[in-house]
Amino acid sequence: MSKANNFQRIRELNYLQKAVLAAAILERMTPNYGLFSEATGFGDEQVFRSALNLCWEKLLLPKSKISLEKQIEKIEPNVPELSDFDMFGTYPAIDVATALLGFIQGIMTKDDVEFVNVAKISQATVARYIEFLFAQEDIIPDNKQVREHPLMQYEIEVLGELIDFVEKMGRISSESVKQLKAQAIIDGQTNIGLAIENV
Predict the structure, then answer these.
(1) Is the CB of residue 160 less than 8 Å from the CB of residue 10?
(2) In a domain, 188, yes or no
(3) Does residue 101 lie within any of the structural domains?
(4) pLDDT tens-digit readout, 102-116
(5) How far is the C-alpha of 187 from the C-alpha of 155, rounded, in Å?
(6) Looking at 2-6, 57-61, 93-97, 159-163, which range is the least confident one?
(7) For residue 190, is it within any domain?
(8) Helix, strand or coil, per DSSP, at residue 195
(9) What is the residue range of 57's domain?
(10) How far apart are CA 177 and CA 48, in angstroms?
(11) In Å, how far are 81, 125, 133, 184, 185 from 188, measured between CA atoms?
């Protein structure tokens, strides 16, 4: 499954399909923030978790009185500054925050471009992690090495499977959303291959 092919397929989904796909991708990304928070003592993963849960709810019940603005206010103080932490985990943590804030904006403004961006951010996190792994061996990888790395191949494959799932979902109901969430973390790991606890 080629990268372009996946993004083309995402663009062909309808608004709600794109939204639940982005939320499923965020389910895979969010635990990266938790691992960063655990390692540094900075931030509260629960804020991200709860915001993502409320977004799922808002997608299922668009008329619900959930204030997404409030969620943005809660997330912003939990976004780490790159200059404050000397560890790789800061990058995925910032990516989670960027993707989640963009996702919430997308729901608030009904702008599905934000949902496509979540998939792009996830893939960029994986690419950066692969570059980090190569750097440990003093190698500066080219695009081909990054693209062909097993982690990137796996990211592309998982995204393809999630798109398949969303295309076949039919009506978006609490039951189908539950199945999609389970599908997103069925392998028990985040998008960069770290184990998700409590799966």
Answers:
(1) no
(2) no
(3) yes
(4) 999 999 999 999 999
(5) 12
(6) 2-6
(7) no
(8) strand
(9) 3-183
(10) 19
(11) 28, 18, 21, 9, 5
- Residue 199 — very low, low, confident or very high, per pLDDT cuts 50/70/90? very low
Q: Each residue of 122-144: pLDDT tens digit?
A: 999 999 999 999 999 999 999 99
The answer to whether position 193 is within a domain reads no
The domain total for the chain is 1
- CATH number, domain of 156, equals 1.20.1590.10
As a whole number of Å, the CA-based R_g of the chain is 16
Q: What whole-number distance in Å separates Cα of residue 149 and Cα of residue 113? A: 27
Q: Rounded to two decimals, what is the model's pTM?
A: 0.95
- Hey, which residues does 195 pair with through a beta bridge? 189
Distance CA 14, CA 33 (A): 29
pLDDT at 91: 98
Stated length of the chain:
199
The backbone torsions φ and ψ at residue 189, rounded to the nearest 5 degrees and listed phi first, read: -145, 160
Angle between helices 68-75 and 45-60 (to 10 degrees): 160
The pLDDT of residue 170 is 85
